[in-house]
Design goal:
Layout (H helix, E strand, L loop, with lengths): L1 H23 L10 E9 L5 E9 L2 H13 L1 H12 L6 E6 L2 H22 L8
Parallel strand pairs: 2-3
Antiparallel strand pairs: 1-2
Helix pairs in contact: 1-3
């Protein structure tokens, strides 16, 4: 149980440090082509591997460039995390694109349009309240 809390604590610290490094530490211009949100950080039980899930706001070609920039910066991030968090061995950092937020927004938009179409056709009963 204590190991699980330690992994969660390290994941939270990694999220905070990587967020700060995305703003101030990475010089690769590709990383700054889109707005990046860290949606989740998963750290292995032995703290040797770290998956960082990101949502990138922008067009598809921008997302690919941003992801390439993040992958290129992963060695730098590993070194910075080791130094900042004072870990014996810093985890290998791998970035994954999380499209969940985007898909959720698309579904909500679609539901809104369907509701509007039904109202326009008169298929929706009026509320009795």
């Amino acid at each position: 149980m204590a190991q699980g809390r330690r992994v969660e604590r390290v994941a939270a610290m990694i999220r905070r440090e990587v967020s700060e490094l995305l703003i101030n530490g990475i010089r690769d211009e590709r990383v700054h082509m889109g707005m990046i949100t860290i949606t989740e950080v998963e750290v292995s039980g032995d703290l040797q591997h770290c998956k960082i899930f990101v949502s990138i706001f922008g067009e598809d070609h921008q997302k690919k460039d941003v992801l390439r920039g993040l992958h290129a910066a992963s060695g730098f991030l590993k070194g910075e995390l080791g130094r900042r968090l004072q870990l014996r061995r810093a985890p290998e950092v791998v970035f994954h694109l999380d499209e969940g937020l985007e898909k959720g927004a698309a579904v909500l938009d679609l539901l809104g349009r369907l509701e509007k179409e039904r109202k326009d056709r008169g298929d929706v009963p009026l509320d009795k309240d």
